[in-house]
Specification:
Elements lengths: L1 E3 L2 E3 L16 E5 L2 E3 L2 E5 L3 E4 L9 E3 L15 E6 L7 E5 L2 E5 L2 E4 L3 E5 L2 E3 L2 E6 L2 E4 L4 E11 L6 E2 L17 E2 L2 E9 L3 E8 L2 E8 L6 H18 L8 E5 L2 H8 L3 H6 L3 E5 L6 H5 L2 H4 L4 H21 L2 E2 L8 E3 L14 E3 L6 E2 L6 E2 L15 H17 L7 H13 L2 H16 L10 H7 L10 H11 L2
Parallel strand pairs: 8-16
Antiparallel strand pairs: 1-2, 1-3, 3-6, 4-5, 5-7, 8-11, 9-10, 9-12, 12-15, 13-14, 14-16, 17-28, 18-19, 19-20, 20-21, 21-23, 22-23, 24-27, 25-26
């Protein structure tokens, strides 16, 4: 049986021709076959083909550990690697032994093989095919394709920028309110993350950016909701907020051009400092992503975030920025076997808004199409959580409607709502035809979470309960 773009095909002959209308890429996987109580497995399990290309798949008994010996002159398996940037090497593991090559590799061992993804900076190149069974004499071509930049998706405001770029290093060594700033941790779409200290305790300080279309109203809303957000963060699955520091008069003066006040008294949120980093850090680490512990770890993390969202939604809020960068670890594991001991928390409550509030910022890679035409609803978080699970399981940000989501963002900022409507409709149509390539254990759940129809998505509680049943 062969699965192509989510559709199953069976054949009793030695030839199968597949044609799908309007498809430019055929993602396939070959399944094991049982015959008279014996299981046969494919020598190549999955890959991607373009229209007109042919793949040969050979089946062999699962109990067979070694193929019949060929002649001495042909006791090699040849791997050909294509598509990587110059000087970058692929790692191919054959029967537990790792080999590195940037072009051609001859191995005197046959058996099961796996090609690992290659990370170049934050760019990821995935192999096609990525695994199989190699026999002496085989020549296996592995094509590496860049699947996008993983872990760099930023939340963006649905309005043009009004302030020039700011250097967050100006705060290092200074004291903001009661927090001494030690270092700059990073920058997101809506703020700068700093490492601070108070009474000998490390804290995360998020200084909020001011490039909102209606910054004054945004910060008034944040000030009004600050006590509720602090209370919500007391949930054990949420990163704790210690304080929200917003002064309406100071904000008004900064917006009028007094940037000295932004340096000395910026709007900011002080939060629990998570020493373990984020799930993005682990996702980009091959030793964790390719470990046998990774899949279970992803399910545990998504379950924990679902429990956090269930509480946030019950309090009348929508998080609005669920993604791997906002899922934090209590401790950073040094080895994959330590993953079972890691706990997860959902961070960045500063993006949260009341249910049915206007949407002022979003991350297109993780948002549902309707976000451009809707108010804040819990179903938006569920879609983002589903996309987070997909990215964590595949290390890909390749949703089929990504171009439409980016174009809709640009149209929205320009005020062209007819363009937005067109892009949203196209994005929904593409999502409706998409079958994410994820483990069967979670495919039904993920399909519902990523439905273009918000009414078909499960609640956060249903997600948590489903994963509780799925985690071994």
């Amino acid at each position: 049986m062969i699965v192509v773009n989510g559709i199953k095909y069976t054949t009793t002959s030695d030839y199968l021709k597949v044609r799908q209308k309007g498809v430019n890429e055929y993602r396939w996987s070959a399944l094991e076959v049982a015959v008279n109580n014996e299981t046969y497995v494919p020598h190549v399990r999955s890959g991607v083909l373009s229209p007109g290309e042919i793949i040969e798949i050979n089946y062999y008994p699962a109990t067979q550990t070694q193929a019949p010996q060929p002649s001495q002159s042909n006791q090699y398996v040849t791997f050909i690697v294509r598509g990587l940037p110059p000087s970058k090497k692929a790692t191919i593991i054959v029967e537990g032994i790792a080999y590195d090559t940037d072009s051609r590799l001859a191995v005197s061992t046959e058996g099961r093989w796996v090609a690992k993804g290659v990370k170049v900076g934050n760019e990821v190149y995935n192999p096609y095919p990525d695994s199989g069974y190699a026999r002496y004499g085989d020549v296996i071509t592995i094509e590496y394709r860049k699947v996008g930049v993983v872990g760099t998706a930023k939340s963006r405001k649905l309005s043009p920028k009004k302030l020039s770029n700011w250097d967050p290093n100006v705060w290092v060594g200074k004291t903001l309110y009661v927090y001494k700033i030690i270092d700059v941790v990073g920058e997101g779409g809506n703020g700068y993350v700093l490492k601070g200290e108070y009474n000998g305790k490390e804290v995360a300080v998020k200084v909020l950016k001011l490039d909102y279309g209606n910054a004054s109203q945004y910060f008034k809303d944040l000030l009004k909701e600050s006590s509720n957000l602090v209370a919500i963060s007391s949930n054990p699955k949420v990163v704790r907020i210690y304080g929200v520091y917003v002064n309406e008069q100071v904000i008004e003066d900064i917006l009028k051009g007094n940037m000295e006040l932004y340096e000395t008294h910026p709007p900011m949120i002080a939060m629990e400092f998570m020493k373990g980093g984020t799930l993005t850090d682990l996702l980009l680490d091959d030793s964790f992503f390719y470990s046998s512990k990774w899949e279970k770890t992803v399910y545990r993390a998504i379950r924990d975030v679902a429990e956090a969202l269930y509480f946030i939604h019950s309090q009348g809020y929508v998080h609005m920025d669920v993604k791997p960068q906002n899922v934090f670890l209590t401790e950073r594991p040094s080895q994959p076997y330590e993953l079972d001991n890691v706990q997860f928390k959902l961070g960045d409550l500063g993006s949260a808004v009341r249910v049915k509030s206007s949407i002022v910022q979003l991350t297109p890679q993780y948002s549902p199409p309707e976000v451009y035409q809707s108010v804040a609803k819990p179903t938006i978080d569920i879609f983002a959580l589903g996309m987070t699970m997909y990215v964590l399981l595949t290390r890909k940000e390749d949703r089929p409607d990504l171009n439409e989501m980016e174009e809709a963002f640009d149209c929205y900022v320009k005020g062209d709502m007819n363009c937005v409507k067109l892009k949203v409709e196209t994005a929904k149509a593409k999502l409706a035809k998409w079958t994410p390539n994820v483990p069967d254990a979670v495919k039904p759940l993920l399909t519902r979470m990523l439905s273009p129809d918000p009414s078909l998505r499960p609640t956060a509680k249903e997600v948590a309960e489903y994963l509780d049943r799925s985690i071994p």
